[in-house]
Amino acid sequence: MVFLAKAGLGLKVLGTPSEETWPGVHSLPHFKPDRFTVYSPKKLRQAWNKLGYVDHAEELASRFLQCFPKNRLSAQAALHHEYFSHLPPRLWELPDMSSIFTVPTVKLQPESGDSIQVCSKTNSHGKATSNSKH
């Protein structure tokens, strides 16, 4: 809560906590409602539009980003969220600490608009050159 109050952006997106959204918030020792601007909650994609590009991403993120701790989605429950339903079944069989990149169908893809480093050419000395694409 202290972090959100200092960051400001969290409150602007998630909304200012109230007894309706966070039962018991007024009894927290450092909660000073008179110091907060009252904000209404917004859709997460209004702050982070890329959440709208991936199916179920905004819904999953909103389940994690809850001011009231008891409303937050646990990591264990998140694994069953529809966001992860399209992952290759082999990922669920990987031993702990194994790389997901050992699964042949898993590849790293850049997001649109992000810059990419492409190493595809070699110069006269046999060294790879990189071209930056945006």
How would you describe this protein?
This protein is of the alpha+beta class. The chain has a domain at 2-86: Orthogonal Bundle (Transferase(Phosphotransferase), domain 1). It has 4 helices and 2 strands; from the N terminus they run H-H-H-H-E-E. The chain has helices spanning 2-7, 9-14, 57-64, 75-78, and strands at 116-122, 128-133. The chain has a two-stranded antiparallel sheet with strand order 1-2. A hairpin with a 5-residue loop joins strand 1 (116-122) and strand 2. Mean pLDDT is 79; it is low at 1-7 and 115-134.
Low-pLDDT segments: 1-7, 115-134
Give me the secondary-structure category. Answer: alpha+beta
Based on DSSP secondary structure assignment, what is the total number of beta strands?
A: 2
Mean pLDDT: 79
How far apart are the termini? 37 Å
Per the CATH scheme, the topology name of the domain at 2-86 is: Transferase(Phosphotransferase), domain 1
Topology as a string of helices (H) and strands (E) = HHHHEE
The radius of gyration is 21 Å
CATH homology superfamily of the domain at 2-86: Transferase(Phosphotransferase) domain 1
Strand order of the largest sheet: 1-2
Architecture of the domain at 2-86, according to CATH?
Orthogonal Bundle
Region (Disordered): 112-134
InterPro entries: Kinase-like_dom_sf
Protein name: Cyclin-dependent kinase 14
List descriptors.
134 residues; Transferase(Phosphotransferase), domain 1; alpha+beta; 4 helices; disordered N terminus
Task: Give a summary of the structure in a few sentences.
By secondary structure, the chain is of the alpha+beta class. 18% of the residues lie in helices and 10% in strands.
